[in-house]
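Thread amino acids onto this structure.
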């Protein structure tokens, strides 16, 4: 094995758009890959934001945010949310996407994206360059079109994509490998 050093070389990370209203009430979204589910009960996810982002003050102040998960066809807009800052522009206007009002939290979500989490900040941890916000998931919303027959979001319909930290690239998700908590019951097959 070749050592690559102490780096955030994660393969893979999610591509999430964290939605919030800024101090002036303008809807904003930023791309976040340093995030993930971090507790089952209460259901929580975490997102790590640099203080320099415009979104930071919104999460730190209001404490309400959303996570909207884009589909492969929405990768260009998702990337834009990670390049431009709401401090200088209106990213919803620029992308033509719609900031929808959440039902439970005071934060907008991306109406056109198929999977949405409504969250409220419960914990904040200063780590270094990034500050980790833990948000309790108050609701998960999925577009009807992305719902599977089993009542769960269907990955073939959602078509989320991932971020690869090394090449700084987006990648689609490959084929199904098997049923979790089942195929490992006979570890030698
Ligand atoms: C794929 C991708 C993932 C990103 N992940 C993060 C992240 O996890 N944390 C962070 O602070 N910035 C991240 N960024 C950068 C922010 O999205 C970027 O600084 C953005 O302009 C901040 O928007 P805002 O100033 O409107 O809040 C990411 C950018 C991209 C393209």
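Threaded sequence (189 positions):
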């Amino acid at each position: 094995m070749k050592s690559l050093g102490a780096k955030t070389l994660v393969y893979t990370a999610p591509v999430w758009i964290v939605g919030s209203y800024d101090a002036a009430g303008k809807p904003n979204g930023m791309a976040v890959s340093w995030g993930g589910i971090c507790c089952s009960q209460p259901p929580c996810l975490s997102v790590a934001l640099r203080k320099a982002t415009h979104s930071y003050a919104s999460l730190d102040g209001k404490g309400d945010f959303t996570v909207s998960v884009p589909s492969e066809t929405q990768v260009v807009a998702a990337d834009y949310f990670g390049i431009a800052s709401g401090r200088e522009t209106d990213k919803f206007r620029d992308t033509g996407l719609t900031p929808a009002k959440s039902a439970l939290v005071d934060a907008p979500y991306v109406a056109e994206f198929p999977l949405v989490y409504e969250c409220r900040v419960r914990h904040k941890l200063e780590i270094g360059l990034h500050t980790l916000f833990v948000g309790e998931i108050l609701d998960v919303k999925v577009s009807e079109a992305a719902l599977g027959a089993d009542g769960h979001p269907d990955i073939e319909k959602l078509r989320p994509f991932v971020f690869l930290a090394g090449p700084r690239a987006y990648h689609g998700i490959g084929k199904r490998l098997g049923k979790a908590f089942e195929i490992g019951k006979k570890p030698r097959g």
